[in-house]
Structures are given as C-alpha cells and as structure tokens.
Amino acid sequence: MEFITLNNGVKMPMLGFGVFQIPEHKAAVQAVNDALECGYRLIDTAAAYFNEEAVGEAVSASGLKRSELFITTKLWVQDHGYDSTLRAFDTSMRRLKLDVLDLYLIHKPYGDYYGSWRAMERLYREGRIRAIGVTSFWSERLADLFIHNEIKPQVNQIETNVWLQQHRAHEFMSRHDIVHQAWSPFAEGNNNVFKNGVLQQIAAKHDKTTAQVMLRALIQRNIAVIPKSSHKDRMISNFDIFDFSLDEEDLQNIRKLDTEKSTIYDEMDPEMAISIGSHRIHD
C-alpha cells in the first residue's frame, strides 16, 4: 500500500474502498468484510449512504487493530450548521461504533457549511477527528472556505476519472497542500469506459485490466482513490495496482481522453443544486 501525508501529518492510504450504493445492511457488511480481507484499510462511507451501521459492524468484527484502519464518513446537507453538525457527528459515531474518526467530510457545498466547518474544527481540536475535509467543492468554494476559517481542509474529494480528469482543480489543491481524492474513478462505467480502445491497449501492454490502469493513472498523479465493488474478485483486482507503473506515453494518451465534463451529473446546474441541497435523509 502507498500512503499520502495530509497537511496535518496524518497518513492516509492512497487506495481505499467506497461503499456508495450498497445500502442493504447484509450486503454492505459482506462487502466491507471482503474488502478488509483483500487488504483495504481505508473504508469510505457517508450518512447519506445509509450503511454506517454496516461498516461499524464489519470493522468491529474484523479483529484488526484500530490503528490499522482509516475510516471516513460524511455530513449530509440536511445537517449543516454548527449545532446540527455536532448532533449528526455523534449519530454517525454511534452507528460506526467508533470513539475517534479518521476523516470527516462535508458532503456537498450547500446550506450553512460554514457553521458545519466550525463545528468540525471544534471536533478536530477535541481529538474526536484526526482530519477534516470536504467533498465536491469546486476550487472557488474551497478557496473561500479556507481563507475565512482557521483550519484548512486536509482533503477535497471530487469526481475524477478519465472523462473528467480535473487537472486544474488538482493543481490548485496541490498548490495549497490539500489532498485530492477521487470519487467515481470509473465514471460509473459511462461511455463504455471499460472497453475504451486506448485503455485496453495500455492494459494489454502492462498485462493489467482497464480498471487497474484507470486507478494506477490516478495514483501516479498523486490522487487518492476509493473504488467500489460488491464483487470480491474485482476488489482483489482493484487492489493489485502497486506492482506496475504507467510511462509518460501512457499518461499522455490517457490525458487525451479528458472531456472536462462529468458523465454523471453537472454540479454547475442550478436545478441539480436545488435537488441535492433539498434532499433529506432523515425526519
């Protein structure tokens, strides 16, 4: 496993396991069990994924030392604001069965996320969170957040894949010592990405799969990544990316695939902002 050091000195695995779209309890427990058996030590969940309890159950039953694990969860928009964030954090910690969380992220940049950030700064100072960050913050909002608060985010988790490579956002985060972590590294399979000719050619060259090539390309750009799969054989394959390197020609050919547009949804669409910002996950 390769690690990246956050701007507060905490070390985070470059490769983790995401549990987005696995809300069913038994399936989520099994997926996390399998991931831990395959060697994953970073598990990424969120209140809005409805599987924090399953993650907590699997982690508790794993027999692994707490110090070996890196657990991330996220605060949903509905719970933004200072006091609401403190309550939501306690709820997540009960579900996860944890005393200390490794990384807490603001899930989306809507509502009173300033109040949330100040609550998270408090939790960080109290030692209840080892690192704090955000998700889906475009560079303007990320800059606005860190210049008006005391603690700079350690991580910004944004959609990053071959169709949306985020080179400008990555340069900005690197310049300000904020780790870039990729969600949806396979673009949810859109545009038949696993059968793309360029990626297939690079995969054949290295005797790897197109999925492995996509993950390796991100890690070589110093981007942490959290692929998700419910299939253990794919978990094993996704984990097997540390025994090869892409050369400059490979990386340049991958860069040519960049459309600079999401194939999932447009975060600049005001209707999407309304939909996400008003979505409720509890009463």
Please outline the helices and strands.
Elements (H helix, E strand, L loop, with lengths): L2 E3 L5 E3 L3 E2 L6 H14 L3 E3 L7 H10 L8 E6 L6 H15 L6 E4 L6 H13 L6 E4 L3 H9 L7 E5 L7 H9 L3 E5 L13 H10 L3 H11 L3 E2 L6 H8 L8 H8 L14 H9 L5
Describe this structure in words.
By secondary structure, this protein is α/β, with parallel strands linked by helices. It is built from eleven helices and ten strands. Helix 1 crosses helix 2 and helix 1 packs parallel to helix 9. The radius of gyration is 18 Å and the shape is globular. The protein starts with a strand and ends in a 5-residue tail after the last helix.
CATH class descriptor: Alpha Beta
Q: Overall 3D geometry?
A: globular
Helix amount: 40-55%
SSE string: EEEHEHEHEHEHEHEHHEHHH
CATH superfamily: NADP-dependent oxidoreductase domain
Report strand %: 5-15%
Q: How many separate domains?
A: 1
The CATH topology is what? TIM Barrel
Decide which structural class fits the backbone.
Answer: alpha/beta
Within the largest sheet, what's the order of strands?
Answer: 3-4-5-6-7-8-9-10
Named at the architecture level, the CATH assignment is Alpha-Beta Barrel
Distance between the termini: 40 Å
- Average pLDDT across residues? 97
Q: Based on DSSP secondary structure assignment, what is the total number of beta strands?
A: 10
* Total DSSP helices: 11
What ranges have pLDDT less than 50 throughout 5 or more consecutive residues?
none
